[in-house]
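User: Second chain of the day. Same drill as before.
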Amino acid sequence: MTHTQKPLDFLWFIPTSGDGTYIGSDTLSRPADPGYFREIATAADRLGYSGVLIPTGVACEESFVLAANLAAHTEKLKFLVAIRPGTASPAYYARLAATLDRVSNGRLLLNIVVGGNPQELAGDGIFLPHDERYAHADEFFRVFNELIETGSADLDGQYIKAIGARLGFPPVQTPRPPLYFGGSSDAAIQFSAGFVDKYLTWGEPPEQVAEKIATVRRAAAAKGRDVGFGIRLHFIVRETDEEAWEAADRLISRLSDETIAAAQESFARTSDSVGQTRMIALHNGRRDKLEVSPNLWAGIGLVRSGAGTALVGSPKTVAARLREYQALGIDTVVASGYPHLEEAYRVSELLFPEIGLGGPRNQIRSSFGDRPLFGGGGHGGNLRVVSGS
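Assistant: Same format as last time:
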């Protein structure tokens, strides 16, 4: 890390649709379970992650409700939860957001989700075409922001009508919880320029991320605004590069060609997301060209929708790749790994020291000063470092 780069803001992921050891297999899989989510959240809180992303969608637990539960079991962890314009009114979402920010003592982050699967959106009562959804979202957040920042709002818009909307209690954060957003289409970028605090990109090669950042910056500057930038990535970090690549191969070792074909066909048929199209283009469903940029591996995207790339390597290697993204303007990472509980430990223990992040919070002393060596957990306790001859 250079003297000009601040440590990254590093978030983890709560896998609310389920977790597992092998992508595309039911071997050693873990179902969606609230107790398991609490294990991941409390681990992330202790290990030094600043927050967690809670995903949204029909296959996921509801993010606001789950965040409220996890907030009661954590101390400093922030919760990046989804607002989906059209599934409820801006006034209702303002009440949800203000209350969750208050009960968590200011630990709420908001993730704007406009796009996705048109079939799923139709099930939620949203029938607008792709670009028009962003026009609707523009009106939605004009009301939402005014309401949560001032306590009142009015708008007689094309899509949103709020007459005398009021909010009884303000959020803890001033003027409101930060707004995060990811979208790669022209309409999405224009929307982001007017409203969001943090623009998130999926893990594309650095040259593509640089182009996207430049586009968003120009759009925001045209509206007199500054936008921060983050990246959504998976991580496969091991003590050596060789071990990391072996772990990547093992992650998809039970994935069949038929499963890949079915997943890719489903993405093409059901999604109108430009970002999803860009993810698919990195690998086109092929196993033989998965390293799409140095240490950027697209194997997860063979079957996972949304973020489909991982940084693979030793701590020094992955830290070097992250510094390349930092040099482009990335200051936030939303990370994950399979399984999420174990990989939260690996990333914290191996990678955090290389990127200038502290280790676990509130560690209790384990000795009176002698450096302890783990002795296997026997009754005699740990060993002490012995000076070698």
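The longest helix spans residues 130-150.

User: Great, on to the next one.
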